[in-house]
Amino acid sequence: MIVGIPREIKTDENRVAMTPAGAGALRRHGHLVLVERGAGLGSGFEDSAYRAAGARIMPSAAATWSKSEMILKVKEPQRSEFRFLRPGLIVFTYLHLAAEPELARQLIRRRVAALGYETVQIEDGSLPLLAPMSEVAGRLAVQAGAWCLQAQNGGRGILLSGASGVRPARILILGAGIAGANACQIAVGTGAEVTVMDISAVRMRYLHDILGGHVNTLMSNHAAVEEEIGQADLVIGAVLLPGARTPRLVTRKMVARMKRGAAIVDLSIDQGGVSETSRPTTHEDPIYVEGHVVHYCVTNMPAAVPHTSTYALTNATLSYALDLADHGVEKACQAKPALRHGLNVYNGHVVHPAVAQALGYEVHEPW
Ligand SMILES: NC(=O)c1ccc[n+]([C@@H]2O[C@H](COP(=O)([O-])OP(=O)(O)OC[C@H]3O[C@@H](n4cnc5c(N)ncnc54)[C@H](O)[C@@H]3O)[C@@H](O)[C@H]2O)c1
């Protein structure tokens, strides 16, 4: 198969769909890999690295898209890329179609075979191609929070680790899923006093087991959040109710009772945010102060560390990309049910039940 890797064009997006090693693996399976010139630069990969891995460098987006049978991307096709969509083209990327009705319409009308990373689902119900980005964002949240707490950013001037004879910061993490657990591990590593809350005893038991006495776990409810938040220097929001808006566990009144210069890093902002005071921000302008608390609510945090994120993404997507390239959509999806869950649009129809429901389409069987 001819596999194309275009340069990402969404604002602030520096990731690329495959590392040179990933491109090399596709090449070793006998596929021709076309990489748009400069596609890897934002992640620290020169064209020469892709060339050395056996890929061919293409001069433009148009050349990459038009010569490829399958396109691997990071972000959903942007409006200026719609013209490249054509019948039979396979597109494997983050799609989030429920939030992109016009893209869905284009994929249907142009009879594209569109697979969304975010709906690839393994037997236990987990989402293996979303997990690596939650892992990155969770780990980054502590770093972002440490920066927010610095005085020049409006923070209360507290070092997470404290110092000899000086108490460390108190970090409250809401949600002990993939992002929350990763935030928790990094937070504990800084020497801060860490409390994590969830409604899942299983998740909290897991964190308690792996981190021993270094973390406090508390069942999440309104009263407990209210009590804990007044003590916290840094609150990290990492709650998710799949398919629904994030519950607003932190009210405006609670924020008013937080310490002056405390910080909220709200990862859940991409699903609405965990605090009533959260609103989306960008990497260019990541923070604002509201109710004397510094808020960091960047919706695409992994884009700040594209080198790490691109490796993490390739590690997760490569085996699925190889299956698609080796066997084509139909056979690959039949052999691997996880990939079938990833199929959103096929042959002019929406074939994923939740996507169809969210967009008001009838769901079809793909074959
Ligand atoms: N901002 C970003 O750049 C970025 C990047 C990656 C992920 N995220 C977001 O981070 C959030 C978490 O993602 P994840 O992969 O860790 O999800 P996850 O499903 O692994 O974990 C979510 C956790 O929230 C818990 N939860 C549900 N209701 C709760 C409540 N009332 N109180 C406390 N905990 C509750 C669940 O039990 C679960 O353990 C999502 O909104 C995701 O979209 C944001």
Question: How does the SSE layout of this entry go?
Answer:
Blueprint: E1 2-5, H1 20-28, E2 32-36, H2 47-52, E3 56-58, H3 61-67, E4 70-72, E5 90-93, H4 101-109, E6 113-116, H5 131-148, E7 170-174, H6 178-190, E8 193-198, H7 201-211, E9 215-219, H8 222-229, E10 234-237, H9 252-256, E11 263-266, E12 287-290, E13 293-296, H10 306-335, H11 337-342, E14 343-346, E15 349-350, H12 353-359
Parallel strand pairs: 1-2, 1-4, 2-3, 4-5, 5-6, 7-8, 7-10, 8-9, 10-11, 11-13
Antiparallel strand pairs: 6-14, 12-13, 14-15
Helix pairs in contact: 5-6
Bound molecules: nicotinamide-adenine-dinucleotide.
The site of nicotinamide-adenine-dinucleotide (NAD) has 33 residues, from helix 5, helix 6 and strand 8.
Task: Give a structural overview.
This protein has helices at 20-28, 47-52, 61-67, 101-109, 131-148, 178-190, 201-211, 222-229, 252-256, 306-335, 337-342, 353-359; strands at residues 2-5, 32-36, 56-58, 70-72, 90-93, 113-116, 170-174, 193-198, 215-219, 234-237, 263-266, 287-290, 293-296, 343-346, 349-350. With 367 residues, it is of the alpha/beta class. Strands 3-2-1-4-5-6-14-15 form an 8-stranded mixed sheet, sandwiched between helices. It has a 7-stranded mixed sheet with strand order 9-8-7-10-11-13-12, sandwiched between helices. Helix 5 (131-148) packs across helix 6. The mean pLDDT is 96. Bound molecules: nicotinamide-adenine-dinucleotide. Nicotinamide-adenine-dinucleotide binds at residues 133-134, 137, 174-180, 197-200, 203, 220, 238-241, 246-247, 249, 267-271, 298-302.
